[in-house]
Amino acid sequence: MSSGKPPIVTCPTCGKEHAWNSSNRYRPFCSERCKLIDLGKWANEEYRVEQREADHGAPEDLQA
Ligand SMILES: [Zn+2]
User: Fold this and answer.
1) How many angstroms is it from 9 CA to the middle of ligand 1?
2) CATH number at residue 38
3) I need a surface site. Which of 9, 19, 23, 48 has the fewest CB within 10 A?
4) What separation in Å is there between the alpha carbon of 38 and the centre of ligand 1?
5) Domain boundaries, position 48
6) In which band, very low, low, confident or very high, does the pLDDT at 1 lie, cut at 50, 70 and 90?
7) Each residue of 27-47: pLDDT tens digit?
8) Number of domains making up the chain
9) Burial of 3 (0-12, 13-18, 19+ CB in 10 A)
10) Separation of CA 6 and ligand 1 centre (Å)
């Protein structure tokens, strides 16, 4: 462990390689922008799933 070089990680959003920096609070993303994009992606997915379930309606609840 003589090397003080930080590991290189790949940003999940843009795929850019960047050095893991413990002072980067957006890690493993390279930037705040990429973190927000990823969060937005997840939020949209959840929103779509909720909408689909709502479309199916409550029949299952009625049967149970
Ligand atoms: Zn990025």
Assistant:
1) 10
2) 3.30.50.10
3) 23
4) 9
5) 8-59
6) low
7) 999 999 999 999 898 787 766
8) 1
9) exposed
10) 17
